[in-house]
Give the backbone structure.
Amino acid sequence: MTSNAEVIVAGAGPVGLLLACELALAGVRVTVLDRRTEAVPQSRALTMHGRTLEMLALRGVAGRFLARGMPIPSGHFAGLPTRLDFSACDSSCPFTLFIPQSVTEQLLEAWAGELGVDVRRGATVESTGQDEEGVWVAGTRAGTPFRLEARYLVGADGARSLVRRQAGIAFDGVPPTRTAMLGDVLLSTPPPGRALSLGNPAGGLMVVPLGGELYRVIVVDAQEIDVPVEVPVTLDGLAAATRRVAGDDFGMHAPQWLSRFSNQTCLAQSYRQGRIFLAGDAAHIHLPAGGQGMNVGMQDAMNLGWKLAGVLRGRAGASGMASLLDSYEAERHPVGAALYRNTLAQSALMMESFDPAGQALRATLSELMKGPELNATLAHELSGFGIRYRAALLPTPQGGEACARWTGRRVPDWPLRHADGTASSLYRHLAGGRWVALRVDESAQTGWQGALDGGWVDMVTAAVPGREAELEGVAVLVVRPDGYVDHAIAAVMPAQASLG
Ligand SMILES: Cc1cc2nc3c(=O)[nH]c(=O)nc-3n(C[C@H](O)[C@H](O)[C@H](O)COP(=O)(O)OP(=O)(O)OC[C@H]3O[C@@H](n4cnc5c(N)ncnc54)[C@H](O)[C@@H]3O)c2cc1C
């Protein structure tokens, strides 16, 4: 087996596939290797959060996912009765999308195919290495050994990541101490309203309709909370646990998938070692609470994809952007740390709170979540809308407070109005994966003399109706390919400003 790839991605899960799309969009040759001969039919994830959808909208493909899923305006934190309200989030996607992971992966693989990504299934990565010039990957496909070389390697190979282990990157955290059961089963007498979420001294239960008579049942059973994750789940065991928590097993039968998952929580010590990067479950694992692992992983993938492509295409420029690849870890490791913290907190609330004190804690927090401020804080954290990067990647002109507050901020898909009377939207200009210098003050001078290759930046001049107050004092917003503002340039420019 040979390949002329510039980047090898280990793992064709949602993270590896999205990363490959992002690279291919920029013309980077990428080969994805996955040991499975076919995609997994079961869907671990059912929730796609609004920020992930926004990212797909940034590349013009969100419609494909929206067409296959169902928007839901609220979500949960630790299964507490007070729902998280996403409708107040400033986004064109202020909801979560109910969409099975298998569908997400199918759509990503189809898109990867359109972009010319080389996905090779049945190819198991067994060892990896690097030197100053590049990386190598050795493994076996259909009984035949292979060795491939490339400039960079990304481990998107899941929780037990071989790439991570071979790179010697520590993956420390909290061992699995609690487990829960999952079943995709038919219910002959489903709960009223078809969906159910409850928590009580016997445990917790979620019932989610998957279509027809098929339902996902997740049970946290106080009596079986210590059962090791390797112990197989039986239909009888799931039904008995469901009865203990809900007083009814809803006539469950014909299981399509039975599994157990744990609260094991680990975070890679670093996301990069030289030419090798980690993304997704390879970098972080945790209790699947609040539907976050795949979403955060896909957001890792986008963050890394355009940066790696920019460096490979020589577009990052010699000055100012030398640390572009380091910024991946600088930006995404704190997001992984926040994920680590919020899922451990949810683990305590869902898997350790059966006694009266724990029940009281749950009730108190649920009550507090009725307050809009706490509700919005948690909704922004779980959806990914709340992520803000701390520092600009480009050297920035002095812009004062009006500009400083834009650094690292996500911009939604603003409608734009151009001087000739035409309309567009911001994300349409970002669909090609390039930077956009959005000139919101027409009297500001044009031209770009920043640290970026001119071919990587599109100048767009437009007013942003309804955002005038927010943009007061700003002439240009320099927006990164992933829809975050790198920096803003002031309306009254100092002499050393980077616009000519
Ligand atoms: C019960 C449950 C429910 C969940 N619900 C949600 C949810 O609603 N929302 C959410 O965001 N997340 C959810 N998650 C988490 C989500 O499923 C994962 O975070 C997501 O699958 C991670 O994607 P990935 O691409 O990083 O890894 P994976 O999906 O694990 O993909 C890794 C790929 O790498 C391949 N691979 C591994 N080793 C090798 C090797 N040596 N050589 C070649 N290929 C290799 C594997 O075959 C696999 O295809 C849930 C998880 C569970 C368990």
Notes: The radius of gyration is 24 Å.
